[in-house]
Amino acid sequence: MPTALTDLCRHPIVQAPMAGGASSPELAAAVSTAGGLGFLAAGYKTADGMYQEITQVRGLTDRPFGVNLFMPQPELADAAAVEVYREQLAGEATWYETELGDTAGSADDGYDAKLAVLREDPVPVVSFTFGCPDRKTLQALDRVGTYTVVTVTTAAEARAAQEAGADAVCVQGIEAGGHQGTHRDDPHSDGTGAGVGLLTLIAEVREDVRLPVIAAGGLMRGAQIAAVLAAGAAAAQLGTAFLACPESGAHPLHKQALTDPLFTRTELTRAFSGRPARGLVNRFLREHGPYAPAAYPAVHYLTSPVRKAAAKAGDPQAMSLWAGQGHRLARQLPASGLMETLVAELAAARDQLNPSGAAGTGPLGSAS
């Protein structure tokens, strides 16, 4: 049966919510206006800051868009391990002439206040990362007409999202840039064997749940979008592909690094935030990644001043250069131009897959 996603965008392309400033109102509005589904990232913002960005998007487009929330995190940080890491980073603070951050920041990211705003003044879509809301929360959003999406990295997490009453799941493969949206951060699962590739994960989730699937992880070209749609996804979510757009709020050094020959690969690391996140391998990641504790968001607050000072100094070697495995395929196009290019590539790929011209499943596929 057709999914409700068909009411949200003309093309099966979702712009990933990228916390830290990349998902600007201008980017979200441009993607939505071009027929995709633009997203704001509420992570690390206050409830009022989130609301101000929502207001900006509404002033730029009349098309649907989404807002992503971080789920509150348990107080699991080992204070002693964080202090040891602080000592290891003392040289970074000295080099960049700054202080290390206060690790006593809130672990709930203003979650309840943001939910209150979104219930009182609803947006078309709300997605969740780092966990699954309870049924009561999802029902409250459903009552105000909001479509809900839960980010998952395993079939078990997808089952939990379905049982809680989510409308769809965003299936995040190990290829994805930025933070892995695992519902439980288990440091014992770190290592080269951690995580599942996107195509395999789509298949596993489709075996277990009936919810529409939004596929995320390393997608940069229209042919890749066609592949995940053929694998059963209803839409594809792209983050790194939109990072290089002029509307993106990412730092210019971050945008340049995506295709800079100096940065040849990505890794999952806890170095910058204390939670596994995929970024371009730079000096900071190499030197501190092996010693970073599983302590999110304490490590995020700890390293924030160093990352900002490095950016101000024009030094990408101590910035968190989040990027997916497909970063070398980034194109510096306006968001509308990138959307147009992706849609054309998707159409060409579909023609190759279906040369007879038989009827397909519609612009956003279907879920069964």
Automatic annotation (TrEMBL):
- UniProt keyword list: Detoxification, Flavoprotein, FMN, Monooxygenase, Oxidoreductase
Show the CDD domains listed in the entry: NPD_like
Q: Per the record, what are the reactions this protein catalyses?
A: 3 propionate 3-nitronate + 3 O2 + H2O = 3 3-oxopropanoate + 2 nitrate + nitrite + H2O2 + 3 H(+)
Record's InterPro entries?
A: Aldolase_TIM, NMO
Molecular function terms, GO-annotated: monooxygenase activity
Q: Which Pfam families match?
A: NMO
Cofactor(s) it depends on: FMN
Q: Which family does it belong to?
A: Belongs to the nitronate monooxygenase family. NMO class I subfamily.
Q: What is this protein called?
A: Propionate 3-nitronate monooxygenase
Task: Show the taxonomic lineage.
Answer: Bacteria, Bacillati, Actinomycetota, Actinomycetes, Kitasatosporales
